[in-house]
Amino acid sequence: MIYDCAIIGGGPAGLNAALVLGRARRSVALIDNNQPRNAVTHASHGFITRDGVKPAEFRRIAYEEVLRYPSVDHLQSEVVSVGKMESGFEMLGSSGLRVLARKLILATGVKEIFPEIEGFYPLYGKSLFNCPYCDGWELRDQPLVVVSEFPSVFHTAKLLLNWSKDLVVCTNGQAPLSGEQKNRLQSKGIVVMEQPIAAFIGQNGRLEHVRFADGTWVPRVGGFVTPQFVQSAPFGERLGCERTELGGIKTDEMGRTSIPGLYSAGDASYFMPSQLIFAAADGSRTAIGVNMDLMEEDYE
């Protein structure tokens, strides 16, 4: 069997793409390795009708809705290779799975690389996060830390002032801020600490203080740590897709990549902002692009 479209990735982008294509009566192979990036998150926010939903519940509801459409097959497997063929694409899975499809959507998302700081992971998703729009409300009016080694820390610190006026910016031994930027932050009462961080100290998932390599420490109850984002899967690069300046898979307004028949949706294409509602909307847009292109081919 050759599917109309295969989708690699069962996050909000891939799921919404499968939903739209299923409703368009297209045959779809939704291939998912069941390893969602937001698995550590207790609740997801900012998605109307689903604000505060647990990630596992979101996936349960989404799969229940998508699989109502008989032309959508859910194939649980880790894709290990993707090949371009004259008639479309061939995907091979670690379980021996082989899928052929006329079109392919990469909805593989991104993964975060956080600074290697002792004590971070027991606190991540509980009192340390990476997205103020996702978790800023829950930390409002609390003493917070902002950890970033990147120039974007200036923007992040300014942004967070709307949630808390008690901020400490830590650059972990790096110098991403100019003197003028430091002066502007300090004029707002934001403390800037540039020494390396030795550890996050806390218990039961709650941050208590940040300890620095020089022995000093500062009490905090939560905060935001900026990761580096990289592609979760290498398929776009291996197939020769053009990339954006940030490292995303470059697409047009309907999700088409530089490779004919290949599309990308969600975080894998735009990297930021990394939110459920953005990814789901992008999956819908890309699915419409796929359906339009299939329609045109079928009328040739």
From TrEMBL:
Xref: InterPro entries: FAD/NAD-bd_sf, FAD/NAD-binding_dom, Ferredoxin-NADP_redctase_2
Protein name: NAD(P)/FAD-dependent oxidoreductase
Top-level division of the source organism's lineage: Bacteria
Cofactor entry: FAD
Assembly information from the UniProt record: Homodimer.
Record's keyword terms, sorted: Flavoprotein, Oxidoreductase
Keyword Oxidoreductase: yes
Domain FAD/NAD(P)-binding: 3-279
Record GO terms (molecular function): oxidoreductase activity
Pfam families linked: Pyr_redox_2
Protein's organism: Cohnella luojiensis
Keyword Cell wall biogenesis/degradation on entry: no
